Amino acid sequence: MASTSDIRKGLCIRYNHDIFKVIEFLHVKPGKGPAFVRTKLKSLTTGKVLDNTFSAGHKIEDVRVETRTYQFLYADGQTYHFMNTDDYNQISLQESALDAADLLKEGEMVTIMFNTEDSMPLSVDMPASVILEVTHTEPGVKGNTATNATKPATVETGARINVPLFINEGERIKIDTSNGSYMERAKD
């Protein structure tokens, strides 16, 4: 058993007969009244995200997890296939277990969390950023740079993101996987 002081990003807990992963948390100590922890939890079975508030000192049941590095092989409809880089065993997961499936490129290394009690995969953690090639984008309009103007672009995985006007087709860009936003040009 853990308490609210142990809450951190990535912690897996058992709550309401389901397993949730802490996505965001904030310890709040108001001037008047008791302290509490405001959390955003993602269900690892359904993918549903909910906001919850725990009072300070509340006991939570944490789930022991084990992480392993896997390589993404290919997608077959809604099923994604991964290979363990240590023993070459393969597993298949549904798209709902992934956070940013549209940014996943073949050969990409990911971290998969497993429940230590039953060895079931819980979630797939993408790297913080990925480097992808822009396959299609309209040319930028000259003189339209007074503000942070962006244009839509399609990358090699098929995902559509907004990029600055100076990005052209064929360029490689770095994308933040947490929110799917453009970070910078890739440094080759």
Low-pLDDT runs: none
How many separate structural domains? 3
Round the Cα radius of gyration to an integer and report it.
20 Å
Please give the order of strands in the largest beta sheet: 1-6-2-3-4-5
Helix % is: under 10%
What fraction of the residues are assigned to beta strands by DSSP? over 45%
Total number of β-strand segments? 16
- The SSE string, one letter per element, is EEEEEEEEEEEEEEEE
Major β-sheet profile: 6 strands, antiparallel
In a nutshell, what does this entry contain?
The protein is an all-beta fold and 188 residues long.
Could you characterize what this model shows?
The protein has strands at residues 2-3, 12-15, 18-28, 36-43, 49-55, 59-62, 65-76, 79-84, 90-94, 109-115, 121-125, 129-137, 150-155, 160-164, 172-176, 181-185. It has 188 residues and is mostly beta strands. The protein has three domains: 2-62, Roll (SH3 type barrels), CATH 2.30.30; 65-125, OB fold (Dihydrolipoamide Acetyltransferase, E2P) (Beta Barrel), CATH 2.40.50; 129-185, Nucleic acid-binding proteins (OB fold (Dihydrolipoamide Acetyltransferase, E2P), Beta Barrel). The strands form three sheets. Strands 1-6-2-3-4-5 form a six-stranded antiparallel sheet, with no helix packed on it. The protein has a five-stranded antiparallel sheet with strand order 9-8-7-10-11, with no helix packed on it. Strand 3 (18-28) and strand 4 (36-43) form a beta hairpin. The radius of gyration is 20 Å and the shape is flat. The relative contact order is 0.13.
